[in-house]
Design a protein that fits this description.
570 residues, alpha/beta, TIM Barrel, 2 domains, 8-stranded mixed beta sheet, 8-stranded parallel beta sheet, 17 helices
Length: 570
């Protein structure tokens, strides 16, 4: 008997075929039939009026720490996601000898906007090596399929300790040890290798994240250490690294490279810069060298206070104060020399920086003092014009007046429907960059897939439902070599997402205090979602998680595949 039959759904298969009204049956975690299913199931669901699509494949998450205490990987499964790729940008938690663990967490807390106390309280260190970390994930039993990238920064930290953020050149022995750790991670099931050259990526106390200070030759050597196996991709937060440089690496090692950078997001100040980067990737692909861009479908938005002003951290003026407590920051923000240095940096912003001086994109969301309520929902540019003052002074003075507790919202990049649509449709791009699990203090973009279906498919009509679903499912799965996922077809793994296309979407961001030790984070909740299934097992019923202990993402059916956890059964 089938373990599950979903009857009468409008099936959008993720492969680009036209929707059909059909039953879908599931046996032993895989789709056994699509069409008229006569045999009954152990469980039957009447999906009349709803759409059934493959589960969303999220290529860019940072659940590496959270998964050790939260098998649900909240909130992603509730938002239609059934496959998550972690370890992006080279930031992970394995390998991690005991003496390196707190350094890893301190850096994560800054570069990924995480609560350090929650990390220290929550991470379960049941591993040291990358292979042991993968075994720990199997034991945890997550609610989504999980793939992990071997990480440049965490591997450099494992070999060099604190010097990883200080010394550009490793010794020959250190480089050889890093190469050995990359090879071991690939043997242990890594889906590929992640790294960063982003100027936005700094660690605790303002130190650069280790990979960001290295020569490209080190990155090249570690990509080479992935070996000759045909599987395994490379993901890079590229910073100023050009498409041409990455094409050379892709050609030399036969690896697909997925580039993430703010410079490739739409910026109305330099509207052609991003499309030029996409076109350069298309040219590389035409030469047989696959270089892609991970492009978000939402504006790059943050809510923040001056006590933790992440959007400004990549500017030189903030390099030494990123980890300061509020009482340390107040005198810094009053200092005329600090303001001068911040202005100088804003006058000539480097490509890819989050904030480039566009004060019209920063809104006063929640004033901390009742006397300032009239400033709510106004931009810093507007307030500055009214007062005849410099916007930088307005921002800092307001923050100081309110004890650095003013909540601001900034939408800095990827704003403008026409410009963003052009990027989302480009064949050199892949919809990604949710950053799910990270920047919890500021934002939650884990619902990017629901946003895409609501905004770009239903509301704007830039994509029809067939192509919209394909871009969230089979396209990312195929590009990463994750076999038999992101599709509804007999024999494929039964990762499924049942929803109402007329109401699908996400709620506004909200703050909850559910991190270890009571730490706060930002989450989104789904709209129009009626069920999410991973390997044929329901993990979210439209209202809550359905876990029953172990999640189906750690199921031996796919973990025992010869290609291992790296491909989640593919």
């Amino acid at each position: 008997m089938n373990q599950l039959v979903i009857r009468g759904a409008t099936v959008v298969d993720g492969l680009g075929n036209e929707p059909v009204r059909a039953d879908v049956s599931v046996s032993d975690g895989r789709i056994s039939a699509v069409g008229g299913v006569r045999e009954e199931g152990e469980r039957e669901i009447d999906a009349d009026g709803l759409t059934l699509a493959p589960g969303i494949v999220d290529l860019h998450t940072h659940y590496d720490a959270q998964i050790t205490w939260d098998r649900t990987l909240s909130p992603s499964p509730s938002l239609g996601v059934t496959t998550t790729v972690m370890g992006n940008c080279g930031f992970g938690i394995a390998p991690a000898a005991p003496e390196a663990r707190d350094l890893i967490l301190r850096n994560l807390s800054v570069v990924e906007g995480m609560d350090l106390d929650a990390l220290r309280a929550g991470v379960r260190w049941d591993f040291e090596t990358f292979g042991e970390y993968m075994a720990a994930l199997r034991a945890i039993g997550p609610c989504t399929n999980v793939a992990v990238l071997a990480g440049h920064s965490v591997i450099r930290t494992a070999v060099m300790g604190e010097a990883a953020s200080e010394r550009v050149e490793p010794t020959a022995d250190e480089l050889a040890r890093m190469q050995a750790l990359v090879a071991a991670a690939m043997d242990g099931g890594a889906i590929g290798f992640g790294a960063s050259y982003s100027p936005n990526h700094s660690g605790y106390g303002g130190v650069p994240m280790p990979s960001t200070i290295t020569a490209l030759s080190e990155f090249d050597a570690l990509v080479g250490a992935m070996g000759t196996r045909p599987t395994g991709i490379v993901q890079l937060a590229s910073g100023a690294t050009s498409v041409e440089e990455l094409e050379e690496v892709a050609a030399r090692h036969g690896r697909a490279i997925f580039k993430a950078t703010g410079a490739a997001m739409y910026n109305d100040r330099v509207p052609e810069r991003c499309i030029e980067m996409f076109e350069a990737c298309a040219s590389a692909q035409a030469r047989g060298n696959p270089v892609y861009i991970q492009i978000p479908c939402q504006p790059l938005a943050f809510d923040f206070t001056l006590a933790n002003a992440y959007p400004f951290f990549s500017h030189d003026a903030f390099s030494e104060v990123k980890a300061y407590a509020p009482e340390q920051l107040a005198p810094v923000f009053r200092d005329p020399d600090f303001r001068r240095r911040f202005r100088t940096s804003l006058a000539t912003p480097r490509p890819g920086l989050i904030f480039q001086g566009n004060w019209e994109r920063i809104v006063v969301a929640v004033p901390a003092l009742a006397t300032n309520e009239g400033l709510a929902n106004r931009t810093i540019a507007d307030i500055a014009a009214e007062r005849g003052a410099d916007p930088l002074d307005v921002l800092l003075d307001l923050g100081l007046e309110e004890n650095l507790e003013t909540t601001f919202i900034g939408q800095f990049l990827n704003v403008g429907d026409e410009g963003v649509a052009r990027l989302l449709k480009h064949d050199a791009g892949v919809v990604a960059l949710s950053d799910a699990g990270a920047h919890l203090t500021f934002m939650c973009e884990a619902g990017y897939g629901l946003h895409f279906l609501a905004r770009w498919v239903r509301d704007l009509g830039e994509f029809d439902l067939v192509d919209g679903v394909r871009r969230l499912t089979s396209r990312p799965a195929d590009l990463y070599g994750i076999a038999d996922r992101g599709r509804i077809a007999p024999g494929a793994w039964a990762d499924l997402f049942l929803f109402d296309p007329d109401t699908v979407g996400i709620t506004p961001a909200e703050r909850v205090s559910d991190l270890p030790g009571g730490g706060r984070r930002t989450i989104r909740r789904p709209l129009g979602v009626h069920g999410v299934f991973c390997n044929g097992v329901e993990v979210f019923d439209g209202a809550d998680y359905v876990t029953n202990g172990r999640g189906p993402g750690s199921n031996s059916r796919w973990l025992e595949d010869s290609r291992g956890i790296r491909g989640l059964g593919g």
